[in-house]
Structure formats: C-alpha cells, structure tokens
Amino acid sequence: MGRRKTQRKNSLAVDSDDDSSVSSSSTMRSDRMSVVGVEDFQFDKDTLLDQALDDLYEKRGSTREKALASIIENLSNNLQHQFVEKKFATLLHQCLNSIKKGSSKEISLASHAIGLLALTVGEGDNAREILTESIPTISQTLRSGSESSKISLVECLAVITFVGGNDMEEIERSLQLMWQVVIPKLGPNVVAVRQSATIIGAMVSAWSFVLTTMHGLKLNSKDWQESISYLSSLLDKDDRAVRIAAGEALALIFERGVLEKFSAEAKGSIDGSTLEGSKPREWFMHIQGLKGKILNQVKSLSMEAGGKGSAKKDLNSQRNTFKDILEFLEDGYCPETSTKIGGDLLQTSTWTQLIQLNFLKHFLGGGFVKHMQENEFLHDVFGFTPKKKFLLDSEHRISSTEKRMFKSPNSFANKARTQLLNKNRMLAEGRNIGHYAVNVGD
Questions:
Q1: Could you give the count of Cα atoms lying within 13 Å of 405 in the half-sphere of its Cβ?
Q2: Could you read off the pLDDT of 87-128 as tens digits, one per residue?
Q3: Please, which domain of life does this record's source organism belong to (predicted)?
C-alpha cells in the first residue's frame, strides 16, 4: 500500500484574510440592500452599467477604458443577470470593438469584461455565441498584441471556452490557439519570438484550465508527445511560477491517464496490433523514459534548497506543490483542499477541481466569493451548494456609519427614492384636483 494521504491545507484553506474580507463586504452589500430597498439599489447599479455601456461608443480611448473598468467592477462584485440578459450582445460587440482598435490597456480590460460576461450568462446559447463571435478577434489580436494584452486574451479565451465550448473541435481549437502564443507555427511570414516567463506561465495555466473540460480525449500521440515534452522542459526553467504551472499541467495529464493510454497502445502494438505512425517498441520505451524523467524532475523540485535571494514563500509554495505531485505520481493520492466561502467550505479532491478553482480565483479576484455564493454555473462546476441566507432582520449587522451613509439625504439611493416619491405625490395631487373639479362641476 502507498503512503497514507494527509489532507492538504494549502493557501486556499488558510488564505482567510482575502476570502473573509471579500465575504464580509459581500454580506454588507446584501445588508445594505435590505436597508435602502432592493429596487433602489438595483436602479443604482443598472444606471451605472447603462452609462458605462454608452461610454463604450465614445471616441476617446481613456473614456472607454474607464467604462470597461466600471463594467468589470460591476460584473465581478454583482451578478447582473437582468442587465446582461437584455444587453449582453451589445456589450459583447462593444468589447470586441475595443479589442480591435484599443490600446493594450483597453484590450486587457475588454478581454476581462468578456470573460466575466461569459461567467455571468453561464451555459447555453448566449455562452456559445460569445465563444463563436470572439474567436476570430482574439485569434487575430494574439498575433500582434503586447505582453499584457496577450495574457488577458489567453485568459479570456480560456474562460469563454470553459463556459461555452460544447464540442471537442471548439475546445481543441482554443487549446491550439494558446499553444501558438508560445510555439507559433512557423511560415514564410512568421518570425519566432521568444516569449517571457510571464506569458508562458499564463498560457500553461489557461491551457490546463481548458483541458479540465475535455472528456474522452481524442488522443493524437504526436501532439501529446510534443506537449508533454515541452511541459517537461519547463520544469527546468528558472522561473518558479512557470515550473509550478507546468507541474500542475503534467499532474492533470497523468490524472487523465494520457500516458497510460499511450503505454497500453504501444504495448498492444508490440504484442501484435499496430500503432499508427510509430514504431511500437521505440514509442513504448520513449513513453517510459518520459515518465521516468518527469518523476525525477518532480522529486528534485519537491526538495529544492533554493538559491541566493530566493523568496521563502515562493520556494515553500513550489515544494508543497511538487510534494503533492510526487505523492500523486507515486501513490495516486490527489491533494485535498478546503476554501472558505462565507460560512461554507468548498472542497476539492482532484487535480481537475484544484486547477479550476485556482484559475477562477485568480480571474475573478475580489469577486470570487460573491460568484461562488450566487453563480449557479459555478455551483454546477464544483457541485457546491452554499447555505441559504435569510436576511429578514439584517439591519443590526451593518455599522452605524453605513446606516448614516445610506439613510443620508445625499446618498444616491435616497435621492432616487425621493424623486420617485415626489413624482408619485404629484401624480396623486393631479388626480385629486381632477376629482375635485368634477365634483364642483356637479
């Protein structure tokens, strides 16, 4: 029997400062809604989003950038289902226009907004439309964009494929586009550009995230051999983040049984069947050698002493990750994690779940807890059902400062409510005057 697996309490479990702060702010937003009224609060949010959407038509790039930043904040921190349902197509095409003609900053913002839009609409026809409409623009811009814009585009591509990609061809197309960012298909007009460690790490993380959606892998031995060999080469790179991303990608590939599948095919070929396009015995030996090489690399990285000036936190993160990978490769145990979501725990027990969780936590940032609490698509992804919160009497849970702020006559919600009351009062007075006039006439 292998070693007994000890439950891993990694940074996801103990990283309570970020989660609790986001969770508490999320709770306070819900509480404030009970104080000022849901309709007023929704009016506030919808007005801001409508204004931001209008600003995407402006010629000045800085105006569009501010509008996109506002849209990102709203889609991250609140699930704007009503707004998105009505105007998702308009928002999508304005964001794509920003990618086509905007600065690097605008491209990055628009890419992030499209990813958030996909997560908000969830699975269905709208998500498929987002993927279909976005692919040509993303593909074109990836060829010439800056480093920061390429990272945002790759992450956007990963999210919209994760949500809207339903068939194998769509998923494989996105995976291929990602690989071409770091390993371009060389042609007469294509010059190989050495990409930075930051881009390589982002690409590998995004690629792994999309790979988690693939079931019944269409195995092409040549393509997989190239991918696995490249990921193995990344384990020897200087950049620690790249090594960790490559290690987790390889763990996912092992979890999916890719190498075992090839080994079985090669062994079957040796025993009498055929393996197309390769010499069975050489291919079998190559796979065994590749597996052995990766195992040795993982062992070395799990015990690395670190160099001069090496950040201790980063080094510990690498050691912990590769200890988990080593334990998985040797004994088949996956790391188990727990992440606090408000008053609930989101638990993972596979590399697939862990990679999905890490990527979405990175992409959603401060909106991660809010989405995990309320986004039904993510509930389905993780099989996570948060406890229902009943805010029948929640006013006591917000501070006196907030009460004063939202009850203040200068607050936006209070002004909107006052205008609505004044309008209703004038209409009522008009009706009363009409009623009295009729009575006098009688």
A1: 9
A2: 999 999 999 999 999 999 999 999 999 999 999 999 999 999
A3: Eukaryota
- Give, to the nearest 10 degrees, the angle between helix 412-441 and helix 16-36: 10
Alpha carbon distance 166, 215 (integer Å): 11
DSSP 173: H
| Residue in the structure block whose two tokens are 């989101």 | 346
Q: Are 161 and 213 in contact (CB under 8 A)?
A: yes
Which contiguous run of DSSP H or E holds residue 338? strand 337-341
pTM of the model: 0.76
- Residue 217's Cβ-count burial label (10 Å; 0-12, 13-18, 19+) is middle
What is the token pair recorded at 214? Answer: 């693939």
End-to-end CA distance of the chain: 100
Two tokens, residue 33: 């809604």
Return d(Cα 263, Cα 269) in angstroms, integer.
Answer: 10
Distances (CA, A) of 174 to 200, 208, 417: 16, 12, 48
Q: What are the residue boundaries of the structural domains of the chain, listed by start?
A: 37-185
Residue 438 CB contacts under 8 Å (≥ 6 apart), including other chains: none
Q: Which residues contact 149 (CB under 8 A, 6 or more apart)?
A: 104, 107, 108, 111, 141
CATH (residue range 37-185): 1.25.10.10
User: Is 10 in a helix, a strand, or coil?
Assistant: coil
